[in-house]
Hints:
It contains 14 helices and no strands. The protein is mainly α. The longest helix has 27 residues, at about 150-175. The radius of gyration is 19 Å and the shape is globular. It has one domain. The relative contact order is 0.21. Helix 3 (about 35-50) runs antiparallel to helix 10 (about 180-205) and helix 3 (about 35-50) packs across helix 11. Mean pLDDT is about 80; it is low at about 290-314. It has helices at about 1-25, 25-30, 35-50, 60-65, 65-90, 95-100, 105-120, 125-140, 150-175, 180-205, 210-235, 240-245, 250-265, 270-290. Keywords: Cell membrane, Membrane, Transmembrane, Transmembrane helix.
Amino acid sequence: MSSINRAGKSIYLLFFVGIIAISFSSIFVRWSDADVAVIAMYRLFLTNLIMLPFLWPHRHEMMRLNFRQWALLLASGVMLALHFLLWMGSLRLTSVASSTVILALEPILILAGSVWLFKAKINRMMLIGMGIALFGSIIIGAGDFQVAGTALRGDILSLLGTMAVAVHMLLGQFLRTGLSAFSYNFWVFLVAACTFAVYNLFMGHAFGGYAASEWGIFLLLAIVPTIFGHYLFNWLLQYMNATTVSMGVLGEPVFSSLLAWVLLGESLSTLQMSAGVVILFGVWIFIRYGKTKPQSIPADAPIAAPGSVEPKTV
């Protein structure tokens, strides 16, 4: 029993690591001068390059994929690309706080989709926890949430990007019932990267000529928010449902705003900092008292190693 409890705690620890990792995404994007579509393309291609040495052990699984699975992988990859394009584009038009707070709508969209598609069960404590976290998210963005000019366009892009990632997560929940995290992530990232390549070719964006610092940012985006963020969250779909995993995005405004305050000099009021505590409290209630606890797994179960063999979903 103690080994199962330790394994459960490790799931929550990894969940927290994923939240911190994705919070760096907006900072790295702000540091880069490249077009957001180019940033996203190389972010994903470099992620695939890092994963490539671990591809061979998964060849048999990939050969067993049917037409429907390939079609859904294609759709999930396109939705991920659309999310990156719209959300990263919003960061050039509005503040980090305003852009990330709109992402707080993701769990609501996924919860609605889960109830509709997967007949997911919800209880009062889950709704209370989500409501508390959403309230805190609104406070964080309220300080500079604007309704005019370029900020409004940025907020709309963030909203559309949130809708796209909600579809991506729901497709992931369905596909991950019979597909390892590695196979799912590798092909979804590759589809998204190729989608960006076609888009950049069509838009006439340069594929080369970037400074070494830009390539460093691309690599940081591949390692930190993609592998330790998106890859990890997709791996957690093995033990948590999509709604619970998506609750991690409610922690992103907290840490993104703190990082933007420290690294970008963006203002952050005492009220917004207090709201961060409210958000984390709401996320804790949702996970602690909701009916979405991680499955019982052995303490020595493989965690996020790209080439590891995962336990089957029960």
